[in-house]
Task: inverse folding
């Protein structure tokens, strides 16, 4: 896997128990009055998911509310409203083929209830050829408003400015990060970044040009931090490391880092927490994409040995870790398998999409009553070289 920046000094595999400074841990918002219901049990979470699934199936396959793509699908196949009553019934669907998001006009995905309302167009992929596109209206706002409740005010002070150094342009993340900052009473600075260009350079082995582009991006971020008061940072692991080589983030005013990127090995997480963030800047790893939304991580405990686990925003999105050669079956806990995503919102229904990622299946962990995914990495990463670019 190709990346940028220096090698992690002392980043050998971490063994034995390790401690993560409490000051760098994601914590509940300070002084917040809790109005949350008691934590769900796995059984209650399953009941909630099944009820939500029935509602979403009715919405997308009812001619009064559904989109033409799924209504046409039902006419040619079968009516899910008659056959889907629980999540296990989704196995009646074959795996969603995301080529439909590239090959078809976006209007086929507009639910009847949304017709006439302008939509956002978000893209994924597209390093070569036509990118895949997901349309939307409010889903990204819902996902990131919910995530705001998981952020500690000490790390992301309300009203303090943010800086986003990550994929912008046609990506959902651009609007989502700004919305998250705005929800917290903050404004956000942005650095332009085109990951398609970086991946193309790496695929063509133009490493020197890629490094120049990387330096160009990081220099812009360093300039903002020098001349503006910024307390919150969103970026990717590789960009974070490169920025940390130029800037002492704590002295620059950064108190919280919201980090997105699929590949973060435990030794890389340790390096970020202990070296780059000095054990005193809040670190919030997340796993997300245009098709899912945002999966938050649970705070690291010593027994985790810096292995990060993410939990989907169920019931709006569900992650399963399945056997690569028998994808109807989930893998055993503690084993690597392929990540399968189902998205269940009124704006977008996508059953059983096989992600290009693999992960360890992890058990439910408070406050989450459903399975998580750990040590996410590109699918087949152990067998072949994967070009991840700035991710």
Result:
């Amino acid at each position: 896997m190709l990346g940028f920046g220096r090698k992690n000094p002392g980043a050998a595999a971490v063994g034995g128990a390790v401690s993560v400074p409490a000051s760098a841990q994601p914590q509940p918002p300070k002084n917040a009055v809790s109005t949350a219901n008691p934590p769900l049990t796995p059984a209650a979470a399953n009941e909630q998911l099944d009820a939500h699934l029935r509602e979403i199936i009715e919405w997308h396959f009812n001619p009064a509310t559904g989109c033409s793509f799924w209504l046409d699908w039902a006419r040619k196949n079968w009516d899910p409203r008659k056959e889907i009553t629980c999540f296990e019934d989704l196995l009646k669907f074959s795996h969603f083929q995301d080529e439909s998001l590239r090959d078809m006009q976006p209007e086929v995905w507009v639910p009847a209830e949304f017709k006439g309302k302008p939509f956002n167009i978000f893209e994924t992929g597209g390093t070569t050829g036509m990118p895949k596109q997901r349309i939307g209206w409010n889903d990204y706002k819902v996902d990131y408003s919910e995530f705001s409740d998981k952020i500690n005010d000490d790390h992301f002070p309300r009203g303090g400015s943010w800086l986003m150094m990550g994929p912008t342009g046609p990506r959902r993340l651009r609007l989502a990060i700004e919305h998250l900052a705005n929800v917290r009473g903050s404004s956000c600075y942005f650095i332009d970044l085109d990951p398609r260009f970086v991946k193309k350079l790496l695929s063509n082995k133009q490493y020197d040009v890629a490094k120049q582009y990387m330096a160009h991006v990081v220099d812009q971020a360093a300039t903002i931090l020098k001349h503006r008061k910024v307390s919150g940072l969103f970026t990717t692991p590789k960009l974070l490391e490169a920025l940390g080589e130029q800037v002492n983030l704590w002295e620059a005013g950064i108190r919280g880092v919201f980090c997105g990127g699929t590949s973060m090995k435990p030794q890389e997480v340790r390096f970020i927490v202990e070296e780059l963030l000095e054990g005193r800047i809040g670190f919030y790893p997340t796993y997300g994409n245009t098709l899912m939304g945002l999966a938050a991580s649970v705070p690291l405990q010593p027994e985790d040995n810096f292995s990060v686990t993410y939990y989907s925003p169920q019931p709006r999105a569900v992650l399963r870790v399945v056997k690569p050669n028998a994808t109807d079956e989930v893998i055993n806990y503690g084993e690597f398998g392929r990540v399968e995503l189902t998205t269940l919102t009124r704006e977008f229904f996508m059953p059983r999409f096989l992600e290009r990622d693999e992960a360890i299946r992890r058990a439910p962990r408070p406050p989450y009553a459903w399975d998580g995914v750990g040590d996410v990495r590109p699918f087949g990463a152990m067998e072949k070289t994967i070009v991840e670019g700035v991710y």
Observations:
- The chain has one domain: 42-378.
- DSSP finds ten helices and 14 strands in the chain.
